[in-house]
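Whiteboard transcription, Tuesday session. T.W. wrote the structure tokens on the left side:
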């Protein structure tokens, strides 16, 4: 009886709210090295989401071409998609990259021009990339981010995220991406005190180099932080895409991270 009630309640929520599905994926050196077969695989994983953001797009022309190839493949799946690619991040001390957004044009409208955060580009090696979308007249701004690796102490740059809500006080922000740092770290405490909550807890999102039995996940790195008073959490999760491959080595040709996703509605 309880299962039936839960199902009916879920169906009611689905029809009552305007739900949006956001997916984030660090696609490890995404560019010309991805084969056509791999592009098709990625498109099949992400095609049922409304907004997709990608981290670790290579900075050269191959990165932009890779995103264009992915958008072209998505457009073969029955929905019209658009995309934007950032300029290379301004880092000179570390590896410069691009970010990308892809979205279904029937469900969302891009407002203005996406931008790389400039205020803290000296403090943050790969400064986050912002884009504002309108969902049935309501705006939301997604900041996608790829932190420096764990060995380089990503908390030293994540600490500046607490200033971003003050920099953009009129925006309904979601911070998304590969933080190379678990949400339980104290560096996220200021954001949490401002009302931002993680969509995942105690969920590893990166792949080991080799599975140990059925344990193939390594670290709790990828997440999204949303403002609880303006965004309604519905459901979230990860996609265990590696299970579709005969080995972890083959899966890691796609990425060493899982896609993470968040279904929400706006107040």
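and on the right, the sequence the group agreed on:
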């Amino acid at each position: 009886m309880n299962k039936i009630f839960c199902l009916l309640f879920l169906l009611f929520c689905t029809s009552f709210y305007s739900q949006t599905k956001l997916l984030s994926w660090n696609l490890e050196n995404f560019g010309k090295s991805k084969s056509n077969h791999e592009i098709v695989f990625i498109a099949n994983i992400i095609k049922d989401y409304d907004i997709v953001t990608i981290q670790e797009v290579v900075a050269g022309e191959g990165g932009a071409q890779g995103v264009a190839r992915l958008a072209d493949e998505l457009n073969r799946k029955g929905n019209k998609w658009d995309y934007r690619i950032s300029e290379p991040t301004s880092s000179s001390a570390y590896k410069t990259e691009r970010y990308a957004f892809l979205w279904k044009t029937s469900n969302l409208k891009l407002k203005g021009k996406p931008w790389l955060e400039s205020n803290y580009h000296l403090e943050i090696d790969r400064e986050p990339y912002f884009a504002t979308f309108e969902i049935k007249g309501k705006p939301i701004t997604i900041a996608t981010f790829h932190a420096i690796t764990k060995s380089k102490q990503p908390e030293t740059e994540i600490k500046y995220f607490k200033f971003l809500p003050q920099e953009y006080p009129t925006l309904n922000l979601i911070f998304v991406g590969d933080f190379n740092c678990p949400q339980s770290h104290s560096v996220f405490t200021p954001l949490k005190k401002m009302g931002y909550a993680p969509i995942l807890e105690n969920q590893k999102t990166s792949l080991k180099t080799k599975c140990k039995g059925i344990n193939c996940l390594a670290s709790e790195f990828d997440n999204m932080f949303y403002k609880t008073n303006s965004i309604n959490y519905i459901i979230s999760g990860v996609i265990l895409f590696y299970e579709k491959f005969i080995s972890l080595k083959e899966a890691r040709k796609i990425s060493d991270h899982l896609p993470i996703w968040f279904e929400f509605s706006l107040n």
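Someone added at the bottom: DSSP finds seven helices and 14 strands in the chain.
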